[in-house]
Write the structure tokens for this entry.
Amino acid sequence: MLPKLDPLLHSELRLAIMSILAGVESADFTFLKEQTGATSGNLSVQIDKLTTAQYITAEKGFKGKLPCTTCKITQTGQEAFARYVDALQAYLVTSK
Amino acid sequence: MEQNNEMTAQESLNLISETLNASRRSILKDSARYFILWGLLLVAFSLVIYELWHISGKPVWNCLWFAMPIVGYPLAMLLGKKSTPIPQNLISRQLGWIWLAYGVFVFSVCLLSVVAVPMPASLTLLIVLVLGFTESISGILLKNWPTIVAGFVLGVGGTLVAAVTKSEAQLLLFTLGGLLMVITGIIVKRQYK
């Protein structure tokens, strides 16, 4: 039986956020916005969903006088991301 | 990029791979600016010290090297503040640590040669060898053959040249080293465009 795909990760923008965060120590909101090409509003909503699921942490702070949000993948997020990739590979193997 | 929950398995894997690669390219492209900055500083300092030593005939001008980190680090921090904050990944972090280790080694040996054990003849030879080695290691991390070869040529060739040249002429090896760092920066910038 094929594993179920995590619905939280099976969304284009949330998956892109997780993919970026999986390869870096942490990333600013501005960097995530540039890399994904998403609007600020949509990105904020998706970051909130990932934060609620404890897949990432989002720390709000200041850089100089400007507010900045720094996102970081958690251990739970790394495990979920790895499971999701494994599930995708299982789907591909079955479909061949 | 907006909401899309209808991706196939292949599309999802492609998205992961493309996003990871794009992020990696941005990070490594950013590291090129620091190669260019420190390369230009090395060229400028070596030429100024060469000229002052040549005109006055006094090697004491070598003390100006200690001003290089004092000028370089604030400039590097300014460069980092001016643009969009770029995150660190494993490679960029390792590159930073390797060059910091190089700086600490060279600074310590130079300081010791001034205050404790004078070693005028072998100092340039040592610094050029370690500079070339660090450049090659950076090339290995970046998977960039021209940088690996440039580091080898600078380290090994520079050591040989340093052994047969004297006094201020040796400083021109650092000018060459600086130029190679600038070229490395330009190559890295193009590689990860």
